[in-house]
Amino acid sequence: MSATRACALSELQQDEAHRVEIDGVAIAVVLDSNGEVHAIGDVCTHGDVSLSEGFVDDDTLECWAHGSAFSLRTGRPLNLPAYEPVPVYAVTIDGDDVLIDPAVLKEL
């Protein structure tokens, strides 16, 4: 599999998560306050809810349902009740296109 256009960079709002689905994989795409684009698994590991409906604060995405915050850089939960990380995907920006390959995890 190769990187697929997930969305346009211009579609992203700073400090808000945007849900995309690529080949059946739900991904939360976030433009953080520093202008960096992140892509993490969109399903909270504590409960089966969409992280893209949560709250972005600097480089974290907080689950709206139970309050677990996940690092946008590593996918690791920063507080309970979640204790399992979410996947983090490599992002490539090509002009206004945000490209993600859900088969390729970001190297940490």
From TrEMBL:
SUPFAM superfamilies xref list: ISP domain
CDD domains: Rieske_RO_ferredoxin
Signal sequence region: none
Limits of the Rieske domain: 4-100
Record-linked InterPro entries: Rieske_2Fe-2S, Rieske_2Fe-2S_sf
Keyword vocabulary terms for this entry: 2Fe-2S, Iron, Iron-sulfur, Metal-binding
GO molecular function terms attached to this record: 2 iron, 2 sulfur cluster binding; metal ion binding; monooxygenase activity; oxidoreductase activity, acting on paired donors, with incorporation or reduction of molecular oxygen
PANTHER family to which the protein is assigned, alphabetical: 3-PHENYLPROPIONATE_CINNAMIC ACID DIOXYGENASE FERREDOXIN SUBUNIT (PTHR21496:SF23), FERREDOXIN-RELATED (PTHR21496)
Name used for this protein in its record: Non-heme iron oxygenase ferredoxin subunit
